[in-house]
Amino acid sequence: MTGIVVAAGFMMSSCSSDESAPSDTKEPEVTYKGNVAYSNGILFNGGTELGNGTQNFHFTGDVTLEKGTYLLKGWVYVDAGAKLTIPAGTIIKGDKQTMASLIVEPGGYVEMKGTKNEPIVMTSAQAPGNRRPGDWGGLIICGKARNNQITMQIEGGPTTIHGGDNDNDNSGIYQYVRVEFAGYPFDTDKEINGVTFGSVGRGTTIDHLQVSYSNDDSYEWFGGTVDCKYLVAYKGWDDEFDTDNGFSGTVEYCLSIRNPRIADTSQSNGFESDNNASGSETMPFTSAMFRHVTFIGPMTAENAGFRNSSEYITAGNVFPGNGSKLGLFQSAIQIRRSSKLNVENLLAVGYPIGLIIDGEKGSTVKYASQGEFKLDNIIFAGMGIIGSDKNKLYEDYLYDFATGTEDKSVESFSHTFFLSNPNNKIMDEAALQLSDPMKTGQNYCPSSVLYDSKGGYIGAFRDISDNWLEGWTNFDPQNTIY
């Protein structure tokens, strides 16, 4: 390694009593015994290990790793003022026993500049064939941009408090990165996501990320303004793209492919969007814009015989046995709790429900009626029903939370709202003529352009010549030898 500067707030029991954490003005001393480096008594195995297995290991200063393969142990924080550089081609394996996670604190900076031919891979330390969702924690990036709670503790268990007033905050560069088998359930309903963004500012660079087999959401944003491009969610457990607490960035070019046997007990959606948990009308509103997205759901032609059941089917077993509970698939889009999520140029195939505008808490139905968010140039194909007005209701009829009434003779408000925009369409899956050039197991790429109302295209790919997945993605991480 070069330029190592490492510190930790936790001292191993083997440390002598006179060892202390470095001051703000003095870099920690690094000493070596064979291949093992010690920084102020903290084990740092040069070339093989990151972290010491506790939940309180901290990087400070300017740290540059050499390209190589590392075992990530415990919760590893990149502190405010610190910079961690991880070069292209590096492999980081998350340790299962210590719930390994990489956590970028507000004010911390991580540079993960992979390339198309040499992506950076964060994956399970388990052997090929034995990897499961939730084998390790995940990648958590936090910043100082706004959220609608002012400051918040990040989801999943880490102590990090994120949020501020700097919407241009910069938490680093994350390009051509794969995150596989993450999402360790730290506690009941406290799973770490594949990639979690907490109040990340628009100065941060996010593009070409693939999250595979996450044990919770593939991606979740809590506030922040960061823009993202080229995101892949592959066979995750819960939601694909979850937005909360005032996230207002723009996210473009996204692909999601579901495993028909994996859904969460909370009901799995493509988009799940809240302004906040209570539905209160607090600013900034969740108002992110997602453009050019393809959702390939569980009910596609390749998944013949699919049934929406919480009973796990053993074929192709990736059940983790870590307390996670299986449930049902729900919708391509669920907008609720005063969210104002915007979606354009979406192709969504094979979900039990197309759209839920959920009025149980907050004002999302009012905002939809007033045109305060946009669903435009969207194709639904192979859906069970077009819309539902209530979470976990798999029937398309009008349900009005405001009055507590229902009318089963009338289509749902969600259905009516979707078709009130003439740019939105309902199609048969067979008419889409999708193909699978990357051999993902699901057809996702149109053979010819699905034109939108403006002469552009609908979905994540213009056609088969526009395959931005090539070179850096992996659709068989279970059997890859790292």
Which structural traits does this protein have?
482 residues, mainly beta, 15-stranded parallel sheet, 2 helices, globular
Write the layout of secondary structure elements.
Layout (H helix, E strand, L loop, with lengths): L5 E3 L21 E4 L2 E4 L2 E4 L3 E2 L6 E3 L2 E3 L4 E4 L2 E4 L4 E4 L4 E4 L6 E4 L4 E5 L6 E5 L13 E5 L9 E2 L7 E2 L9 E9 L14 E4 L6 E8 L6 E4 L5 E7 L6 E4 L5 E8 L13 E3 L15 E8 L34 E6 L5 E8 L3 E6 L5 H6 L5 E7 L3 E4 L9 E3 L4 E3 L5 H8 L4 E3 L6 E2 L9 E2 L36
Parallel strand pairs: 5-8, 6-9, 7-10, 8-11, 9-12, 10-13, 11-14, 12-15, 13-18, 14-18, 15-19, 18-20, 19-21, 20-22, 21-23, 22-24, 23-25, 24-26, 25-27, 26-28, 27-29, 28-30, 29-31, 30-34
Antiparallel strand pairs: 1-6, 2-3, 3-4, 16-17, 32-33, 35-36
State mean pLDDT (0 to 100 scale): 89
Main sheet summary: 15 strands, parallel
Strand % is: 25-35%
Shape: globular
Number of helices: 2
- Structural class from helices and strands? mainly beta
Q: Using the CA coordinates, give the radius of gyration.
A: 22 Å
Query: In the residues, how many domains can be counted?
Result: 1
Q: Segments where pLDDT lies below 50 for 5+ residues? A: 1-43
Termini separation comes to 20 Å
Number of distinct beta strands: 36
Share of helical residues: under 10%
